[in-house]
Specification:
By secondary structure, this protein is mainly β. It is built from three helices and nine strands. A hairpin with a 5-residue loop joins β2 and β3.
Length: about 170
């Protein structure tokens, strides 16, 4: 549930919308380093906190490079402004395991994937439309997981959540 020590890529999903990614070397790992950022030091405005991704050598990576290197998808959950109350729950803090659910009968998007706490009790939003087909395909592969990677808070209240999804093994 809390902080994970390492993440290991496995195999690549196949889908029409699969992101281009260079294959990872088997056993390649990266670590997640906790951090926060407040641009002006005033905690009453927007504050980022969560995890930075570092490669096996300990070098920080931006999220785009990490997606390519480790065959992950990293996205901001869509629709959280409609579900502000559940978004505040501790189950959505950075480092938490999340559950993704393919919504077969969603009338607005046939590829919709909703984002829930690990027990499937509280839903906070959706995988963005431009990434949901890839995520649905990857959900079929054993060992794929979703984790809360980072959050933005405004006036102390969580207003967005960034998720990392892919072939992730979690050690406690």
């Amino acid at each position: 549930m809390g902080v994970f020590d390492w993440i290991r890529p496995s195999r690549k999903p196949t889908s029409a919308n699969s992101p281009d990614s260079s294959p990872s070397k088997p056993g390649t790992t990266f670590t997640l380093v906790e951090g926060s950022f407040d641009p002006d030091g005033d905690k009453s405005d927007l504050v980022w906190s969560g995890f930075h991704i570092h490669d096996a050598r300990g070098v920080g990576m931006d999220y785009d490079d990490a997606e390519k290197a480790f065959n992950l998808t990293i996205f901001r959950v869509a629709g959280v402004s409609y579900r502000s109350d559940p978004l505040q729950r501790s189950e959505f803090e950075p480092g938490s395991v999340l559950k993704l659910v393919a919504e077969e009968n969603n009338p607005h998007d046939r590829n919709a994937v909703s984002v829930w706490d690990r027990w499937g009790t509280n839903m906070i939003g959706y995988v963005p439309r431009e990434r949901n087909e890839w995520v649905r395909a990857a959900m079929q592969i054993p060992g794929t997981n979703a984790l809360a990677l980072a959050e933005h808070r405004k006036d102390g209240k969580r207003v967005s959540l960034t998720v990392v999804f892919g072939p992730i093994a979690v050690k406690s």
